[in-house]
Amino acid sequence: MMRRTVGSAGVPERAVALMVFVAAFVGGAVVANRLAGKPVPFLRWSVLRFLLGSRRLVREGQVGDGREEALARRVAEVARPGDLDGVIEVIDDFARHKSFLMNVGDEKGLLLDDAISRARPLRLLELGTYCGYSALRTARAMPPGARLYSVESSPANADVAQRIWEVAGVADRITSVVGSLGDGGVTMDRLASEHGFSSGSVDFVFLDHAKEAYLPDLLRIESAGWLHPGSVVVADNVVMPGAPDYLAYMRGEEGCKWRTVEHRTHVEYQKVLPDLVLESTLLGVARP
C-alpha cells in the first residue's frame, strides 16, 4: 500500500513542494517581468496582491491594500476640477502603472462608449460602481438630460466613486445607490419609490458586479418590467472571470427575446488574457 508523507500542517509534502515551486515561479516571473523593460501588465505585484485579496474583495468589495482610497487621493491631487477626460486618464494611468483596478478599462471602455452613443439612453442603470470609472465614461457618452443610477454594495466604494465624480464635474448626473438587487427587494423598491423606476423606464443597463449575479439580476429587472423593446444591456467580464449562465441565457434567447453582439476583447489593462463583452438589445417585451 502506497503511503503519502505529510507535512506538519497535514498537507502532503508533494503538494507543499508544488506550492513552493509555483510561488517561486510567479515571484521570479514578476521580477523578470519588471527587469524586461516591457512588462506584461498582469505580472505585477499589484495584480498578485489583487489575487491574494480576492476573498476579501468578494466579501467587502475592496482588495484590502488601500488602492481604492489611494486612487481617490491621486485623482484629487493630480486632476483638474471639472476635467472629465483628465480624470479618466488619471485612473487609467493609476491602473496601468500603480495598482491594478477591476474597472472596465480603456479597451473595453470604448465598447461601452460606443454602445451608449448608439442607444442614446435617457435612464441608465449600472450594477457595480467600484471606484466610479465606468460611470465617468457613461456620463461622457450619454446624451444631454440623461441620468445614470449606479448601484454598489460597498459603501466604501460608493464614497470613493462619489468623490471622484465630484472632481470630474459629473456628480450632478449620477445617482449613487448603495445596495444590491438581490437583497430581497429593498434596493429595487428604493429605485422604484425614490428614483422613478417603472414599467419600460430603463433604456440601458451595464453589468459589472458579481458575475454570478448577472443573470439573476437581469431576470429581476425583466420581471419588474423596467425594460422596453430596444433597451440595451452590456455585460463585462463574461469570459474572465466569467458569467457562463448569463452567456448561455443570451445565446439561448438569441433572435427570440434578445439580439446579442459578442465583442471579443481582453481583460482590462493588458493584451494577453481574452475576455468577452456582450451587448444585448431587447427585441420584445421582457416576460416574467
Automatic annotation (TrEMBL):
Q: List, alphabetically, the SUPFAM superfamilies matched.
A: S-adenosyl-L-methionine-dependent methyltransferases
Tell me which InterPro entries the record gives. Answer: SAM-dependent_MTases_sf, SAM_O-MeTrfase
Name a GO molecular-function annotation.
O-methyltransferase activity
- What Gene Ontology biological process does one annotation of this record name? methylation
Q: Name one Pfam family in it.
A: Methyltransf_3
Answer yes or no on keyword Zinc. no
- What Gene3D superfamilies is this protein classified in? Vaccinia Virus protein VP39 (3.40.50.150)
Q: What is the lineage of its organism?
A: Bacteria, Bacillati, Actinomycetota, Actinomycetes, Mycobacteriales
Coiled coil: which residue ranges?
none
Superkingdom of the organism of origin: Bacteria
User: What is the designated name of this protein?
Assistant: Catechol O-methyltransferase
PANTHER family hit by this protein: CATECHOL O-METHYLTRANSFERASE 1-RELATED (PTHR43836)
Q: Does the keyword S-adenosyl-L-methionine apply?
A: yes
Report keywords, A-Z: Methyltransferase, S-adenosyl-L-methionine, Transferase
